[in-house]
Amino acid sequence: xxxxxxxxxxxxxxxxxxxxxxxxxxxxxxxxxxxxxxxxxxxxxxxxxxxxxxxxxxxxxxxxxxxxxxxxxxxxxxxxxxxxxxxxxxxxxxxxxxxxxxxxxxxxxxxxxxxxxxxxxxxxxxxxxxxxxxxxxxxxxxxxxxxxxxxxxxxxxxxxxxxxxxxxxxxxxxxxxxxxxxxxxxxxxxxxxxxxxxxxxxxxxxxxxxxxxxxxxxxxxxxxxxxxxxxxxxxxxxxxxxxxxxxxxxxxxxxxxxxxxxxxxxxxxxxxxxxxxxxxxxxxxxxxxxxxxxxxxxxxxxxxxxxxxxxxxxxxxxxxxxxxxxxxxxxxxxx
Length: 335
Ligand code: SAM
Ligand code: DTB
Ligand code: SF4
Fold this sequence. Notes:
Layout: H1 3-10, H2 14-28, E1 35-43, H3 72-84, E2 89-94, H4 104-117, E3 122-126, H5 132-141, E4 145-147, H6 157-160, H7 166-178, E5 182-184, E6 187-189, H8 195-206, E7 214-219, H9 236-249, E8 254-257, H10 266-275, E9 279-281, H11 294-304, H12 327-334
Parallel strand pairs: 1-2, 1-9, 2-3, 3-4, 4-5, 6-7, 7-8, 8-9
The structure holds S-adenosylmethionine, 6-(5-methyl-2-OXO-imidazolidin-4-yl)-hexanoic acid (DTB) and iron/sulfur cluster.
């Protein structure tokens, strides 16, 4: 979609936007099931990057307790518990700029991925920058999806991160696509961006070829010590509008209502589900911050009569459309 089209959608009366998004959602996900994903930080803090929202950056004096890469046995305890609790996707995050093949830590990550994949859960990792060889090795180890967010527009990105570029992010996404791994790519609201920045992000993601498998929409969890610690909360109805636009812009992707749910009422989350969100992070912890209690989430889904999704172990990335250019080329056009 183009920015102009997205703007027109965004500016529709609220109920007109919601009905359109809900119709797209029903057409693409007729069973209306919600995917439950569990997050685990396998390496916390001490990151070289300067992302202004992130407590894990070594550049800011935050209250976070860092830890080195977890041992596989410890990761497996969390993964088994996640599976027992009903989660079907296990997402592991590491606070690194990126990974390099041949290093002991990358080999350790590959071992962890092999173990988690043996549990019959979807395995997602987010490890920062990846080259083509590393992406291939992750795929062979059993990774089904790679999370790498663009976070905001290319115009606003340099106000938020200076230690790497938007182009760097796009290159990694290309490498993941080329390795045949499903891409999970979304953004974060509440980082001093404009509505146009939000829609520019959707414009770029909606033109990915192949399309992303999932689009996480995070709301800033303000972290003491980071430059954005005092940012105001995202307006709940703006979040719902963004979810609706994401649903329409990337109709076949799962739209994940991600960080920030602890600050949302059940009613706002309900509107998000109606607008097309069909995946959540489930379990009391995200990477380093809190998430709603699993029992509360189960109660809300039950109240709404929403069922949960089974794992898709054969998760295949969407097909590439040969009639349009591959993703990173689009940025150049878009800018
Ligand atoms: N280091 C890897 C990377 O940058 O891709 C993976 C981890 S990073 C924590 C993954 C995503 O989490 C970020 O792109 C951002 O969208 C989200 N995130 C990080 N800190 C957040 C915060 N304080 N509030 C909301 N979302 C946050
Ligand atoms: C994503 O888009 N959100 C998740 C996951 N991908 C890795 C991370 C949210 C992090 C929230 C802040 C924290 O817990 O540190
Ligand atoms: Fe590091 Fe990722 Fe946090 Fe940026 S978002 S500081 S790359 S962990």
